[in-house]
Design a protein that fits this description.
Blueprint (H helix, E strand, L loop, with lengths): L1 H8 L3 E5 L3 H13 L4 E6 L3 E3 L16 E3 H7 L3 E4 L6 H10 L1 E4 L2 E4 L2 E4 L18 H6 L2 H5 L4 H5 L3 E5 L3 H16 L5 E5 L11 H14 L2 E3 L3 E6 L2 E5 L5 E5 L2 E4 L9 E2 L5 E4 L2 E8 L4 E2 L10 H17 L16 E5 L5 E5 L1 E7 H19 L8
Parallel strand pairs: 1-2, 1-8, 2-5, 8-18, 9-10, 9-15, 10-11, 16-19
Antiparallel strand pairs: 3-4, 6-7, 12-13, 13-14, 17-18, 20-21, 21-22
Bound molecules: flavin-adenine dinucleotide.
Length: 383
């Protein structure tokens, strides 16, 4: 109690490692409810990346998917420090125990630490020979990547292959179809899928809708095919019986999820359990949090926003004499995948409630807009 009184007298110091969706939501929610907290954000990039909207680079040459942390610093009266933090359990235990992080000789002290460094870096994945990756689309110039007049691509035929049929692979397949149609050079789009159906983690009706739309648009689905090796214009695929064959491809985009996937266990309130020790002043949020309970929070942008808000609330509540912390027990309320600029499919409310077409697209755009507003300081999320 004495310690709590002491904390109230001085400004609360909060250090957030990771400025992704969960980290920024925590920062913004803290700032809205505590004008004098001293908040420091550390990230290894200069900018926040709106990951769920990466496919928009194919619609618009400069979509607003990168927000410089400098802007966040000014907008929400916080401090940004660029640094790549070692995220091993021992390193985090050391930082948590000493309540300070040393960066380039400077000691950053904190009362509360929030770890929000995500599951894996979608644009930092190791490169696959002969394949484009998300990094190429986010950091590169689309023209030389996809320009139909480029001789090397033409010599590989007009096939564009997407490896991976999760939400990102499916979204990119339709966006690429739209892109090549728009520039007047239609290509044959192929989706290489290790599973039996696209969007395997979604209800089967969602996959059926996607397969139907793929067939309508002429996108070819190759189920149960694993990528074994690749080089420019040639992939070696293996089916479930173990037989391998060659797949010619002018452009290949690899959009499978990228390990390593590091997670940190948390208790019911999002507090860290590191090396079997409980740290009540260290909260873990977003995809990094691994909660083993009756209802495990999903690994999604929606969930990252809700976890970020919850952690901000719990940090402020832990200042009270009798802190009534909120539990992590919540689930996703929906997930919608776009199929180009005119169609979408997913579920909303419960996994049995499937939405499609322009209605689904409108809902998806609304959620994207909600997040844009949050980054402006206007919170319309109901949690
Ligand atoms: C390509 C793709 C598309 C997706 N599409 C959707 C979608 O349509 N809908 C949906 O609901 N979900 C989607 N998701 C999932 C969603 O993006 C994640 O669940 C969400 O981003 C998790 O938020 P986070 O804050 O936990 O992590 P992230 O958003 O990954 O943020 C982590 C942050 O930590 C920083 N960081 C990482 N390591 C370090 C380090 N060592 N030191 C310092 N900083 C570090 C990173 O730079 C980053 O800013 C998608 C994911 C991917 C990869």
């Amino acid at each position: 109690m004495k310690q709590n009184r002491a904390l109230k007298k001085k400004n609360l110091k909060i250090l957030i490692i990771g400025g992704g969706i969960a980290g920024l939501t925590t920062l913004i929610s803290l700032r809205k409810r505590s004008s004098d907290a001293e908040i420091t954000l550390v990230d290894h990039r200069d900018f926040h990346l709106k990951i769920p909207r990466l496919h928009e680079v194919l619609r618009n040459p400069s979509p607003p998917i990168k927000i410089p942390f400098k802007d966040i610093e000014d907008r929400f009266k916080s401090r940004f420090v660029k640094a790549d933090i070692s995220l091993t359990r021992d390193a985090i235990e050391g930082i948590a125990s000493s309540q300070r992080l040393i960066i380039s000789g400077e000691s950053i002290d904190f009362d509360y630490l929030v770890l929000a460094s995500g599951l894996s870096d979608p644009i930092g994945a190791p490169e696959t020979p002969g394949c484009l990756s998300l990094k190429d689309f986010v950091e590169g110039d689309l023209e030389p990547l996809l320009n139909p007049k480029t001789k090397t691509q033409k010599s590989g035929g007009d096939i564009v292959s997407i490896v991976g049929a999760g939400p990102t692979g499916v979204q990119f397949a339709f966006e690429l179809m739209d892109y090549f149609e728009r520039i007047g050079d239609p290509r044959s789009i192929h989706v290489i899928d290790a599973g039996e159906r696209p969007l395997a983690n979604f209800p089967s009706r969602v996959s059926e809708y996607v397969l139907d739309r793929m067939a309508q648009r002429g996108i070819k689905h190759h189920p149960c095919q694993r990528l074994v090796s690749s080089k420019p214009r040639e992939l070696i695929l293996e089916d479930r019986a173990g037989s391998q064959h060659q797949h010619r491809s002018g452009i290949t985009v690899r959009l499978t999820s990228a390990p390593p996937f590091t997670t940190f266990p948390v208790n019911l309130f999002g507090q860290a359990l590191i090396n079997n020790r409980s740290f009540t002043r260290v909260y873990i949020t977003g995809d990094l949090a691994q909660f083993k309970g009756p209802i495990a929070p999903a690994v999604s942008a929606q969930s990252a926003v809700r976890k970020g808000k919850l952690i901000a609330s719990n940090i402020l509540k832990s200042q009270n004499w009798f802190p009534l912390l909120r539990p992590y027990l919540h689930q996703d309320r929906g997930y919608i995948v776009t199929l180009g600029g005119r169609d979408a499919v997913g579920w909303i409310g419960s996994r049995g409630h499937i939405v499609t077409g322009s209605f689904a697209l409108g809902l998806r755009e609304m959620v994207d807009k909600q997040y844009d507003l949050l980054l402006e300081g206007i919170d319309t999320f109901i949690v």
